Amino acid sequence: MEKMKILLAVDGSETSSLAVKKAGETHGNRAVEVTLLVVLEDVVSYRKIPDNPLYREREADALQLLENAKSILQEYGIEANTKMAMGPVAAEIVRIAEEEGFDAIFMGSRGRRGIKRLLLGSVADEVIRYAHCPVTIVR
């Protein structure tokens, strides 16, 4: 039997943490392959500026988010892979899910974007609209 591939997008928000727990509760002790994903979104790519302290700080925060989520999943018996991407958040989640053949996406309903969410529409809405696979939104 082939393992179900789940992409679990995390951003450090409360609903993101709930999505990690829900994925663990739902898929613990099952044949699943979980990849935790953090997407860093920038208007200007900080990676292109050599030795940029802001990028290093954001990258370190993202790596810590991934490690925290990974340890939560381990409590449910799930070993997870981790991945970091940079770009528009919803577009990157959808792109990675499609290109890497994920069977499902888990994510929180509201991220850490604040007022931008009201003006631009939510990441969750965009992922639901464009994803090729089922999307579970946790709130």
SSE blueprint:
Layout: E1 4-9, H1 14-27, E2 32-40, H2 53-75, E3 80-86, H3 89-99, E4 104-108, H4 115-120, H5 123-130, E5 135-138
Parallel strand pairs: 1-2, 1-4, 2-3, 4-5
Helix pairs in contact: 1-2, 3-5
Descriptive report:
The protein has 139 residues and is α/β, with parallel strands linked by helices. The chain has one domain (4-138): HUPs (Rossmann fold, 3-Layer(aba) Sandwich). The chain is 45% helix and 22% strand. It has five helices and five strands; from the N terminus they run βαβαβαβααβ. The protein has helices at 14-27, 53-75, 89-99, 115-120, 123-130, and strands at 4-9, 32-40, 80-86, 104-108, 135-138. The protein has a five-stranded parallel sheet with strand order 3-2-1-4-5, with helices on both faces. Helix 2 links the parallel strand 2 (32-40) and strand 3. Helix 1 packs parallel to helix 2 (53-75) and helix 3 (89-99) packs parallel to helix 5. It is globular and about 45 Å long. The model is unreliable at 114-120 (pLDDT under 50).
